[in-house]
Backbone:
């Protein structure tokens, strides 16, 4: 039997550049941020991750469990007249895992919060820009140098 090798990345990040954040409400700002860092794909109608991050940002100084987040997401989606797509508990937890993977959210016991109750910009600069992105760039450079 032949073994098929799969190239599985150790880590990855998607970055997109959009227009400057001017005259956008908080949900739309959160949506553009999710698009900018690859948490949401352009044209994706299943945007519950936007509401999850938005709920956590609205409750910056609190820790919420996944069910509390789910309830708040449902309220937020009703307020904005959005379909209740993706609000199943299992999907909420999956999206929280994605936010954790990008260091924006952390889990403390069974509760979630914005990482260390910090601002998103400080988390981005400290964890994503200085650590995550830097290590990816260094490895890509190694491949460039290895090719002669």
Residues:
């Amino acid at each position: 039997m032949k073994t098929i090798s799969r190239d599985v990345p150790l880590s990855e990040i998607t970055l997109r550049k959009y227009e400057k954040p001017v005259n956008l409400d908080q949900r739309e700002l959160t949506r553009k941020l999710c698009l900018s860092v690859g948490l949401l794909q352009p044209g994706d109608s299943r945007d519950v991750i936007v509401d999850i991050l938005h709920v956590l940002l609205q409750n910056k100084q609190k820790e919420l469990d996944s069910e509390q987040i789910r309830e708040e997401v449902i309220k937020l989606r009703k307020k904005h007249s959005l379909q209740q797509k993706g609000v199943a508990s299992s999907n909420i937890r999956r999206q929280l895992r994605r936010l954790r993977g990008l260091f924006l959210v952390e889990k403390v016991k069974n509760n979630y919060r914005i990482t260390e109750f910090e601002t998103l910009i400080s988390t981005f600069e400290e964890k994503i820009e200085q650590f995550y992105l830097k290590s990816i760039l260094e490895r890509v450079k190694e491949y460039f140098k290895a090719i002669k």
